[in-house]
Amino acid sequence: MASEQAEAVDLVASDTVKQLSGAVLFAALTAVLAQFSIQLPGGVPFSFQPFGVFFAGLLLGPLWGGFSVLLYVLVGLAGAPVFSNAAAGIGYVLGPTGGFLIGFVIAAAVLGFVAHRSLTPKSVAELSAVSVTAALLAGLAVIYLVGVPWLAAVQGITLVAAASAMSLFVVGDLIKIGLTVGVVAGGNELLADWR
Amino acid sequence: MLTYTPGDTVVHRLDPRTKLGFQFAFALATFTTLTLPRLAGLFVVGLVSLYLAGTTVRTVVRAYWIILLVLAAGPLIAGVTLGSPWFEVRPALASVRSVVRIVPLLFVSTAYVTATPVRDTRAAIQRTIPGRAGQLLGVGVALTFRFVPVLRADLRRVRDAIRARGGDTRSIRERSQRLTTLMVVRALRRSDRLAVALQARCFAWNPTLPRLQFSRLDLPVWMLSAVLAGVGLAAILPL
Question: Residue B204 pairs with which residues in a beta bridge?
């Protein structure tokens, strides 16, 4: 009887458990950073939202990085207040800025693939500053390529008007890319140990 | 903050799969609706779902005020021109028609979130999406929900530690790099510990899930979902 019960338990492989744990923690990190900002001189908020997406793709690779950000979106869909300004639900995901959330999922996968050039991620220490920069720029392009047409469609405005409205945010996002490159490709020994 | 509120309303008692199915059918009908009578119908259904979930329009406004502001900006952006006449009414009205249909979707979304525990949604995801992908998504949603407050507390501690050492007087670059590095490192450490804990507890592909069961109450909601989906599909398909 005992042996029958033991056979019935189908254990998850240890590598899958490790990747799933990483995806879960980066989904939670994305949720926490989405609520966090620091004040720039003049009171302009500097949001940390994209950092979670960037690090998920760079550290977990295309498959699990994309999976991690998908988890973040699903947790918000399920009702946890994890989107910007503690919002949740399908109304937010299908609302005017929902395209950027969908873009995050695809971007994490794309930037992970560009950085690692494979579905299997390598150690962060092996990533060059050039490949990290290219990966993050590709990810940012994906976010805007999905988000801007979505915004235009929901708002009932032209693509040019939507792109003009969002152009102000591009500068901030490019600064965030520079900061992420500094953290990941700057020989950061705290991150290099992982994997 | 929009989150689950325990209760015993009609919406609370529905099976989560019914509620998810209804939301998607409603969204389909929403995005294919531009006529006034249909829009009015969607508003009525949205308001009724709010009422049946025991919540109010005020909750919707409080939860989604940023989204409502962005929606309100749509007609302004659409109408503004760079030269004379400076504002055109026709594109602004087209934008109004487009953004107004999102509002009833926010009603339905609020009704779902306030009347459905995350655990039920997790079970619904796991039961609806076939195979191991569904299982990983179900477990992942449950664990992520569990770790959000943990990492939020980590962020508070990291921020306080940086502040206590005079870090808030440093440049934006230094502050943001230090904070993100420390948060990523903490997340990685917690991830390693979570992996060990899951393996120690024989994390398996065949866990025990909470029981979900359709009742008579679910039938009218499924019928309404079918009507909404039919309306949406009829607008998309050349029928």
Answer: A11
